[in-house]
Amino acid sequence: MKKPVLVDVEVAKCDLIDGLIKGVEVIRAFSGEAVQMSATEMAEKLGLSRSAARRYLLTLVHIGMAATDGRNFWLTPKVLSLGHSYLDSARLPRAIVPFLQRLTLQLQESTNYSVLDGDEVVYITRVNAPRQLTVGFDPGTRLPAHTSTAGRVLLAAQSDEALHAYLDRVTLVAYTHATVTDKAQLLRELLQIREQGFGVTESQYEIGLRGISVPIKSRHGNLVGALSVSMLISTCSTAEASAKCVPALQATANTVMLWV
User: Fold this and answer.
1) In the chain, what are the domains?
2) pTM of the full predicted structure?
């Protein structure tokens, strides 16, 4: 099958279905801080009338993507089918799994494939290290790009204009005492990643966790994602981890490039 070519399309407002847009917003309104919500709470969160919020929520209940006790609503596991539709239809997440498996076997560390979505990095595919205790992030996990090695690698690969636009709009939230929240410092680190071709972060989102990542590009030079290794900081020094992982990551990324 011929790979589709991504193009920028300016969509007229008359071609948009507002109800579909709002329905997706209703699904995304649920979170770890809002596991359950009433129609009134949903209405306040999204700026809807209570009756409109209730209809959206009842529609989700009707198709099995939400449940209710008569007052509060919550999502059901059926919502995960939306993410599986992407994984089933997208070529690269499926094709990259054997490469991740070989990389994990070689390094004895968990490996991931990630993409940038807005100001967040999304972990798409993961292969766990063959040990009882594994570290890293499950597929579907979204993190602020500045806290993730993969996110930083993907940001560093953007144009100067896109990178400065990101820094202008983003709020750098601290998740640990080590999280970089100074924009000037983050810019310096991103430019260093761009120059050296890989990134290493430690304790940026979770204390004791190290990430090492390289970009994956197509044979035409287009950025298609990031390849990462996750490990505990306590296993070895930063220099030892980089010497062990970076060449293997880059070799794998170069091999994947021939397939995309």
Assistant:
1) 13-78 (1.10.10.10), 90-257 (3.30.450.40)
2) 0.72
